[in-house]
Amino acid sequence: MAFIELDVLNNNAEQLALGIDLGTTNSLAATWRDGRPTVLRPDDGEAVVPSAVYFPEDGFPVVGRGARERAMMDPGHTLFSIKRFMGRGLADVQADLRNVPCDVDENENGVVRFHIRGRQYTPQELSAMILKKVQDVACRALDGAAVTRAVITVPAYFDDAQRQATRDAARIAGLEVLRIVNEPTAASLAYGLDQKGDGRIAVYDLGGGTFDISILSIEEGVFQVLATAGDTHLGGDDLDRALADEARREIAEQIGDEAADDPAFRQALRLAAEHCKVELTRQPRAQMHLSLPDGGQWRRTFTREEFEALAAPWIERTLESCRRALADAGLGTDEIDEVVLVGGSTRVPAVRRRVEEFFGRVPHTELNPDEVVALGAAVQAHVLSGGTRDILLMDVTPLSLGLETMGGAVAKIVHRNSTIPCQATEGFTTYADNQTGIEFNVVQGERELAADCRSLGRFKLTGIPPMPAGMARVAVRFHIDADGLLTVSAKEESTGTSSSIEIQPMNGLTDDQVEVMLRESYEHAQDDFDRRRVADLRAEIGIMTHAARKGLESVGAELDRETREDLEEALAVVEREARSDDAEVVQKARDAFERATLPLASLMMDSVARTALTGKSLDEV
Ligand code: ADP
Ligand code: MG
């Protein structure tokens, strides 16, 4: 319902270059835009390209999400984890060959070749396909601009041959490589740690199939890798497998081992397990739902505790690598100044907790861990394109700005770290029938509830003509000028009624306060998510029950007695359940109530149609 437009006004032209994270599991690109690195996400799709290639019987290879999906149906013609083979000979990759569904050999120069559908492909060519797809997505996000220059990242432990293979892949893809950059260095750049003075950084990167820990030092802006350690076969896939194995065991009891080992079913199980794992990052329990090979259905709810117990041994193994890396660097955890989390699997709350305990400090998680490498590569690409670094993190809003909505949640309108000057507009509407005024509470902060953010001021828009709830179209515009002065204005579109206030938010908080608020928002993220969901659901239920009462008043007599009593009962139930703090309970109550109102809704629709025919106004119904 909301419409958001964000016009960033300081759009100075410069030569664009991409920062590309070419990952084992996922790849993506970012670039420098409007004074900061930004992930390139097309309007109609996702930024992330799964690093997978599928070879159909005829036609071009399919790269990315499509390939991942095709693998379910046809696992024999999909290649994953190509990065493991870059710059390696057959002898180096014995362990990885088990997961390759096709014949593999080596050419006279010791380059691995995959034989698939009657052709041979080197890892460089396959990686080039992925890079091309990433470039494609990036260019689409840039409205079709043709960008061919790029910084590409590699793990810190990559040797010359592996780096050269990456360069070659880029050349094959038609990209001009500005530089190959270490992933942990890129992650540190994304956080601006090069600007914080000298220090030592631990970068903990848990991706899909690999774990890397890197200890870096920065001296006068120059990065040095002090030590690396890790496990080339440990990552999110293992967490998926742990969940999938648990599910498979239970399913096999039901349908037997043979059916449970059906290859297509195993793929489906793997995807369902990953989905369940991701859900468990956001909520305390999640359901795994599978169609069994025998046509039956299987459902099982996993709790976060169950998952964490399965994940614990893997997490402990990453910490052993951390100990090793520290020992190699000759450092204790107390000599590490910053810890940075990288990789999609560091979204798992238990991982964050254990890493924090291990290093004894709160790790950086402000940026998305699966985007941070690409963002850092974009910083480097910008610097290599002649841009200066100084403008990074200058002239940005330190905290998000937004409005309190019905139910006490916050609608963020200008996001944290937006470059200024900027403006953003969002649409709001009235909550009650014939509401002639709206009070706006302008808030600043990262938390999801207005009560936990800082209120910057309130103002009222009055003089909205009486109309039914939800009909008014009120556009609220936030404008921050170059001096950081915020003006918020609201305008009712049909009548042009408007009102505004000027606020000075930028010097209201000290850096320390900003730090504290940020930290709090990360600590409370899950809590907030649930509370926000409950607040939104309650507001929705409020509108629904109001409408149902009005409907009962006007056309309720036309309902049969049983339906009416059911509805009245449902009203009482939903109002009681809405007081619960459990989002699941409130969601269920809302859904059940919606079902109970269906007969009334269709009756009201009929009645509106009849009214139109007889020429009576809505008020008279
Ligand atoms: P790589 O660097 O290996 O290419 P990524 O950093 O993109 O990979 O990490 C991919 C892994 O992150 C996958 O195993 C995926 O399941 C996992 N992942 C992504 N999002 C989440 C999440 N919200 N919770 C748990 N794991 C996640
Ligand atoms: Mg990665």
Structure summarized in a few sentences:
With 621 residues, this protein is an alpha+beta fold. The protein contains 16 helices and 27 strands.
Core attributes:
Nucleotidyltransferase, domain 5, 6-stranded mixed beta sheet, 16 helices, globular, disordered N terminus, binds adenosine-5'-diphosphate, binds magnesium ion
Helix content: 25-40%
Q: Biggest β-sheet, characterized?
A: 6 strands, mixed
| Strand segment tally | 27
Instruction: Note the total helix count.
Output: 16
Proportion of residues in extended strands: 15-25%
End-to-end separation in angstroms reads 28 Å
CATH superfamily of the largest domain: ATPase, nucleotide binding domain
- Mean pLDDT value: 85
Number of domains: 4
Low-confidence stretches: 1-13, 390-395, 505-509, 612-621
Class of the largest domain in CATH? Alpha Beta
Rg for CA atoms: 28 Å
Query: What is the 3D shape?
Result: globular
The set of bound ligands, ions and cofactors reads:
adenosine-5'-diphosphate, magnesium ion
Provide the CATH architecture of the largest domain: 2-Layer Sandwich
What is the CATH fold-level name of the largest domain? Nucleotidyltransferase, domain 5
Structural class: alpha+beta
